[in-house]
Amino acid sequence: MHISNVRIQNFRQLKDTTLDLEDELNNELSLLIGKNNSGKTSFIVVFEKFLKSRKFYYDDFPLSLREDILKLSEKTDEYSLAIRLSLSIKYGEEDNLQNLSEFIVDLDPKSNTARISFEATINKSKLLKDLDAVTKRKDEFIKKNLSDYIQVRYYIFDNFSDFEPKHRSNLIPKDASDVNNLINLKIIQANRNVTSSDAKPQDRKILSYLTTQFYNSKVKVSHDELDGINSSIIEADSQLSSNYKAFFSPFLQNAKSFLGLTDLNVVSDLQSKEVMASHSKITYGINGTELPEHQNGLGYMNILYLLLNIEIEKADFEESGRDINLLFIEEPEAHTHPQLQYVFIDQITETLKGIKGLQTFISTHSAHIVKKCNFKDIRYFRIQKDEANTEIRNFYIELQARYADERNTDIDKVEKENFKFLNQYLTIESSELFFAEKIIFIEGTSEKMLLPYFINQFDTDGLGDKGDIALTSQNISILEVGANAKAFKHFLDFLEIKTLIITDLDTTKECESEKGRKTYNACAAKIGTHTSNGTLRHYYKSPEFGDKGFSAWMDKLKEHSHDAPSPLIKVAYQDVQDGYQGRSFEEAFVSANMDSIGSNLDDVDGLKNKDKFDDCKSDPDKFVEEMLDSKGKSSFASSILYLALSKDNLKWNPPSYIKEGLKWIAK
Fold it and tell me: What GO molecular functions are on record for this protein (predicted)?
C-alpha cells in the first residue's frame, strides 16, 4: 500500500501541482529538488497543515486568488477558492485493508485505488455575516482573521470533477479520526535547533533533550529493553532512602515532637524519565577529556540530530501501526561538509528499511546528496512562469522519453548514448546543474583557466548592457564538458536553464588518403569546408557530409547565420574579428592579443620557435601552427593568466565570440 499520486490545489505557489509516485518499485524515497522558492517547503507544509495543525491563513492562498477573497460576496464560489490536498492510494491483495476500507467505495475486484481529499474552505456565510458589522477596512479584517473562517473537511472522491459545485454530492465525507488511523506524518524541519558554543545556556542541550525523547519512546514500547537502567534506578532509590533517613532524622524528630506525627519519612522516588531529562547529557571525548555537546562542530551536531530524530520517529511509526507512514526531512545538508552528506544519504535508506508503509521525502539544495542518489528518485520542482504555478516533474522518466524513440534509427541510438552519458556525468561529475540559475559549458583547459578572468574583465570594463547584473554576482555554473555539450540539449530544455556553450569552429577540409579514402584534416577557417565539432553539428542540425545541403549549411555556420537552437541556449564559437576567423580558442585569442603577446614573449610559456615571432605575427594560423606547442596549450593559458594577474598594465582582450556570449548570458 502506498501513495501513488499527490495533487495540491490553491496553496501558495502550488496552484495546481501534481506529484507522480506511480512506480510501485520506486516510491519509498523521493528526492525533492529545485531552485530556491520553487515550492519544496510549501509542499511539505501543506501536509503538515492538513494532517497536524489544521490551521490556514490568508497568506496561504495563491496571489491570483487573494483579490477574489477580498471581494467575497454571495455570488462567490467558495469551492473554487478551496485549498485542497488529494491523495491516490494504491493497495494490493497482500495489504491489510482494515483502516483503508473506510475509504474504499468501489467494490470492483479489479479496482486497487482509494482516493482521499483534504479540503480547506472558507465559511462564506459566517464571514459575510461578520463583515456586515465591519464598517471600515474590511480588507484588513479578512487578512487578519480569515483563519477563523476556514474549515477543514475530509472526503472520498472518485474523479476531480466531483469537486465542481454541481457534482459535490458525489463526495463522501469522512472523519478526521478515520484519516488519523490510516496516515502517520512526521516532519524533521530545516530550522533545526542545533546551536554552537555561542548559544544561550538553555539552548545548548538539544541533543541531550533528544536522547531523553528517544528513551521515552522506548519506555512506551519495551520495558525489557530498559531492564538494566530500571534496576540501577531501584538500587539508587534504596541507597538514597537510607541516606535520607540519616540526614533528615533531626528534622523528623522535631516534627514528631511538635506535630505528633509518628509516621513521617523522606524516601527517594527516582523516575527514569526525570533522570534522563534532568541528569543526563551528551559529551564528546573519553578519560577526562570530555567536552559538552555544544563545543562540537555544527555539522556533527546536525547529523546526530537527524539520526536521533529519525530513531524517535521510527519508534512512533512502529508503535502506531498505521498503514501509511510519511517522513519528510528538510535540507539534511545544513552545516555539513560533502563527506558527511554522502554518508547521510548512503545510510538513510538502510536506516529506514523495514518500516511498514514508509514513504520518505527529502528536500535538498545539495548537489552532493543528489549525486549520491538514484536519479529515478528525483522529483524536480519548477515554476511555470506564465501560469505562476509550480510543477513537479519526474526527472528520470520524462527526460528518458526525450532521449529515447521507438523508431530506433541511428540518430535515436546516438540520443540513447547521450542519455547514458548524461546519467553517468551527473552521478560522477556534477549535479550542481540542477540548482544553477545559468550555465556556461566550456570545451577545454585553456577556456577553463581564462574564462573567470574574462568574466571579471567583462564586469570591470562594464561591457554588459545598462541594468544587467554583474556576471560575478550571478549564480552561474561553469563546467568543462569537452566535446560532449551535445549530450545536454534535452536536459537543458527540460530544466529550462539559460545556457551558454563556448566551443570551437574546428574547420576541416576534405582530402583523400593514399588508399583512396576520404579524410577530413584540420585546416584554417578561411579554407574549411567541413567541421569536426559534434556540438555544432548537433545543435544546428547538420546534414550528413555527403548530403546536397551540407555545403550551404557549412557556409551559414561560418557566417553565424543559423537560427539559435532555442531561446535559452546560445552556442558561441569563433566569428570574424578584425577580418580574421580562427578555428580554435588559441587562434582567436592570439589574433585579439598579438601585440601584447609580442611585448611579453619571453614570459609566455607553451611556445616553441619564439625567434619566428616576427614572421608569424601577421598570421594567427601560422603562429599557432609553428609556435604553439601542441602539448603546451595548458602552459600557454596558465602563463597568460599569470601575466594578467601579476602585471599592472597588462590586460588581455577576450575573443569577440566570448565577449558576445558573456553579454548574452548576462541578461
Answer: endonuclease activity
| pLDDT at residue 221 greater than cutoff 60 | no
Quote the longest CA-to-CA distance of the chain: 126
Report whether 309 contacts 212 (CB < 8 A). Answer: no
Give Cα 422 distance to the centre of its chain: 18
The backbone torsions φ and ψ at residue 349, rounded to the nearest 5 degrees and listed phi first, read -65, -45
> CA angle 57-61-64, nearest 5°?
150
Looking at CATH, the fold of the domain delimited by 2-190+333-379 is given as: Rossmann fold (3.40.50)
Are 656 and 577 within 8 A, CB to CB?
yes
Q: Indicate where the chain has its CATH 3.40.50 domain(s).
A: 2-190+333-379
Q: What single string gives the DSSP state of each residue in 429-481?
A: T--GGGG-SEEEEE-SHHHHHHHHHHHHHHHHTT-SPTTPPPGGGS-EEEEE-
Place of cell 457534482: 167
Give the highest mean pLDDT range of 91-105, 288-302, 321-335, 570-584: 570-584
Taking CA atoms, 391 is separated from 24, 59, 394, 449, in Å, by 22, 20, 10, 38
User: Which of 16-20, 93-97, 114-118, 362-366 has the least mean pLDDT?
Assistant: 93-97
- How much is the pTM? 0.77
- Map residue 404 onto helix, strand or coil: coil
Judge contact between 537 and 573, C-beta under 8 A. no
160: exposed, middle or buried (Cβ count in 10 Å: 0-12, 13-18, 19+): middle
Residue 452: CB atoms within 10 A of its CB come to 13
